[in-house]
Amino acid sequence: MRATVLYGAGDVRVENVPDAHLIEPTDALVAVSRACICGSDLWPYKLMKPGEPPRRMGHEAIGVVEAVGSGVRTLKVGDVVVLPFAYSDGTCAFCHEGLHTSCVHGGFFGTVELPGAQAAALRVPQADGTLVVLPVRADDALMASLLTLSDVMGTGHHAARSAEVGRGKTAAVVGDGAVGLCGVIAARRLGAERIIFLGRHRDRIALAKAFGATDVVSERGEEAVARVRELTGGLGVHSVLECVGTEEAIRTAIGIARPGGAVGRVGVPHYETIPASQPAFYNNLTISGGPAPVRAYIEELLPDVLEGRIEPGRVLDRVITLDEVPDGYRAMNEREAIKVMVKP
Ligand SMILES: [Zn+2]
Q1: Could you say which residues of the chain have pLDDT below 50?
Q2: What integer pLDDT is reported at residue 107 of this predicted model?
């Protein structure tokens, strides 16, 4: 079968690999109908060091169950399923607490350990706990929005929840990628009265406004902080969704948070220590977040997608075939595309 392999910085290839197959009795084999390239795939695409082992990429997908192991109880061949970016058993203490990304039998797709979803098919461990059956056909018109439940919509929602967005509050979103844009949807959905979007690309700003952003700040760094403070009467915002992961982004997030406010960070941190600890301390900020337990959020967000109340699929602004994946990485890396959908 065809699958995406990252060999080094800038070196991503689509190759013939052995067919995915069941290994454990709790596995399912899923034929991929739709996959994505993720902003987080760009980190190893840019920074993978020589000598690191090749990696089979992809952690977002909708597909059709092709086979199940003898221990699988809730899935059957032919089910249309959405894949959370992490697998989980659904039964351990952390899964019961809704923190499936910390599952004691869990792990992540598209890693050195587990081949990913930018492929014709993939093996899904802990299939009963991991996969969610969708009440649609694999060619449904809602497919793009349903696909975002794999990662970006759930991650934007996690940023908003971690930032304690609520009715009547002011929120700000740092990051104009797919997660930041989904963060706007999530902040509005959770009742934010005002949503300040930090971004500078015209098409992304337009989408953010369509999703509910009320204000746009295109400055960066200290100037962005000053501008957000100006917009909020000098106070700052209650809730900051940090959807980038760079030191500059977290510094901006802490700079624009109002005393007593919260920063929800979902950008994979590319810094060792959280900067700006003095203002964070003196302003009594809550700094929260981490990998989103999207498995927990799928059930919460699915009705809104199915009933058309939210349309996160609009962040997928380019569709390619599996063999075009290397160009998809290039397009996202050069910010030509917000997010790329792959149709194997
Ligand atoms: Zn678990």
Answers
A1: none
A2: 97
Matching residue, tokens 């369509």: 210
**Does residue 197 contact residue 212 with C-beta atoms inside 8 Å?**
no
Q: Calculate how far, in angstroms, residue 293's C-alpha sits from the geometric centre of ligand 1.
A: 11
Contact 64/79 with Cβ under 8 angstroms? yes
Residue 139 confidence (pLDDT): 78
Predicted confidence at residue 49, as pLDDT, reads 94
Q: What is the pTM of this model?
A: 0.96
CA of 102 to the centre of ligand 1 (A): 7
Cα 241 from Cα 175, distance rounded (Å): 8
Q: How far is CA 7 from CA 10, 15, 85, 149, in A?
A: 8, 11, 21, 28
- CA-to-CA separations, 270 to 172, 266, 275, in angstroms, rounded: 21, 12, 12
Distance from the alpha carbon of residue 114 to the mean position of ligand 1, in angstroms = 17
Distance of CA 295 from the midpoint of ligand 1 (Å): 11
Instruction: Say how many Å lie between the CA of residue 287 and the centre of ligand 1.
Output: 25
* Closest to 39 measured CA to CA, from 204, 161, 219, 216: 204
Q: What is the pLDDT of residue 14?
A: 98
